[in-house]
Amino acid sequence: MTMDTPLDWALRWEQTQPDSRFATQPIGAGTVETFTWGRAMQQARRVASYLRSLGLEPRSQIALASKNTAWWIIADLAIWMAGHRSVPIYPTLTRQSVAKILEHSRAKAIFVGKLDAPEEIVAAVPEGMPMIRMPLGRAHAGDVAWSAVLEANAPLQDIAAWDQDECATIIYTSGSTGHPKGAMHSFGAMATSARGLFELYPIGPDDRVLSYLPLAHVYERILVEMGVLYTGVELFFAESLDTFLVDLRRAKPTLFASVPRLWQKFHGGVSAKMPSEKLARLLRVPLVRTVVRRKILDGLGLGHCRIAASASAPIPASLIQWYGELGLEIAEGYGMTENFGYSHGTRPGHGRPDYVGEPYRGVEHRLSPEGEVQVKSPGNMLGYFEEPELTRQAFTEDGWLKTGDRGVIDERNRLRITGRVKELFKTSKGKYVAPAPIENQLLHHDAIEAACVAGEGQSQPFALVVLNEAARSAKRDELSRSLAVHLDKVNGGLDAHEQLDFIVVVAEPWTIENALLTPTMKIRRAAIEERYRARVDGFYQRKSKVFWE
After folding, report:
1. What number does CATH give the domain 6-185?
2. pTM for the full model?
């Protein structure tokens, strides 16, 4: 029997507010296409009719590979309407990774949409698998165009009925190598997570949100897709990296969720035009403060933002403070694919530097004797698809999800992540080093965009850092001196065995495309260490605090 599911929410918007705006979609050359709820749902119903016509076994898996567009969410709704489960695929994965996911999930059809390298996806699609080409996608032999599907199929009326405890989607972990793991999430987990999240951060149809982080990831899935379906918030999309600021200014979001790397980029762009010392002086002048704040936030497209969030990786406390001085409070969030991102968040006005906040409603947390964070959440997965042993390993015997993160809990029940259980490495002195907290301290420097602490088997650890765009054109001598001072400051707060021998400023930026960042812009530690492994001995021979690769 159908319960209160995300699909039900969409059907209610269709019935009660068919003429209200659902989404604004860029389609190129500065033009946009708008969707009302009525129009979006009519398209979803027609696509669902097509899926039904394929004669697939009920509750089959349907893959979905595209950058974020309005049609991504419409396709997801169509899959549910037709009685199937969606399997999102990261748009940046290689053909080998896509092939593994399609095979492992036993997908019976695939939607392919807007992609930078569609050949990687298409090459992985088995011969004979139905492939629906979404708008803005490139045509390929054997695919069926979205427009043709809409034209040839009447809107589906007998929408599939779902129970809350049935699997709605299978979200594969973002790693591009190794054995794929697909976290199965129920309609109930998705619904309860959305209710709890938007009870803490309330939004509604008068609010606006910009979607640009991958919808294949739980962070964007809960904040954006569930946010739109549950609250009716108006949705905008980004066209590309080149047009991002234009898209952001068009949306004028009142809710803006990002990752630390982008918050750092915004900060770096402002600092390149107005050094921090000058900004601090201006903000101390009461008559000037309001004007300066408004000018900076408007320039970023965040002048209307009232709820700002950061998740996926640690954000430096100094960066939160900088935005706070501009009048923008950034709430930190913490979650995993395995609990649908529904775990912890900063309650407005109750943040603490370097802490990810308190458990959301209905969430319990505890620390194992080894300091591992363990969570019971309404968003916890049903398990890994077709992987009973991996599912067993993911939970304790009494049903708590093992996060793999180490942490501490303060007197107000706020959680601080101190590193990964398996990320510790040992120096040649036999001492263990936790890299993540040190990396977080390095990111307090205005010029550093990303950092990776390494040094397994060496006498002391060291750091690889990527400069932000503004800092790359700075004078090396001046920046080297500044980084050396920063290194001394960081080392001053570390135990002797943790202190960094030197900082290497790397030449090549770390990106999703070169596989050194995950789709949500976390560093891929193993890949970075492997990239520089052959040069490490030479780094130590340089005998300098700071040097360029």
Report:
1. 3.40.50.980
2. 0.86
